[in-house]
Amino acid sequence: MSTDQTIDHDSWNYSPAKLPRQSKISLGQIHGVLPFDGVRNPGFRSSSSHRVWMTFRTVANDFRPEVGIAESAAEAAAAHELLLSPDLYDLQFQPLSVKFRDEWNKRRTYTHDMLATFVDGRRVLAFNRAGCAERRP
Question: What is the pLDDT of residues 109-129, one digit of tens each?
């Protein structure tokens, strides 16, 4: 092996390959489990983000298992925190969308991450955002 060889460039691929966005995953009926009932299905395959599919039980559906889809691990963690509360009555993923115009007058649609309903009737819409994105409007 010669010691006078030089490398012109680094050929190591430091990041995962960018893959095209895949179609949404549709989950068929699961015997004994209530289906996902959100207004938007965030269950597409991604090479860069984590989608979490889970079953959960609440008082509102007589503790029958129900499918929930979280768009991120942070959103799933927030759902787990809510599900641990003895005051939680119901939890919905992707419960409703709102339409608005942005600062450039462009029409946009936004879907809330979760809606938590508590036994005292209080309802809370939740929105999860990564720490680095908290400063964005």
Answer: 888 889 999 999 999 988 876
Q: How far apart are CA 107 and CA 62, in angstroms?
A: 39
User: Does 104 fall in a domain?
Assistant: yes
Q: Is there a domain that residue 34 lies in?
A: no
Q: How far apart are CA 48 and CA 23, in angstroms?
A: 15
CB 35 within 8 A of CB 28: no
Q: Decide which of 89 and 130 is more confident.
A: 89
Strands (DSSP E) found in the chain: 52-56, 66-70, 88-93, 97-101, 107-111, 114-118, 123-126
Which range marks the domain in which residue 75 is found? 52-128
Inside any domain, residue 8: no
What is the number of structural domains in the chain? 1
User: What is the arrangement of strands in the sheet containing 88-93, beginning at the earlier edge strand?
Assistant: 88-93, 114-118, 123-126
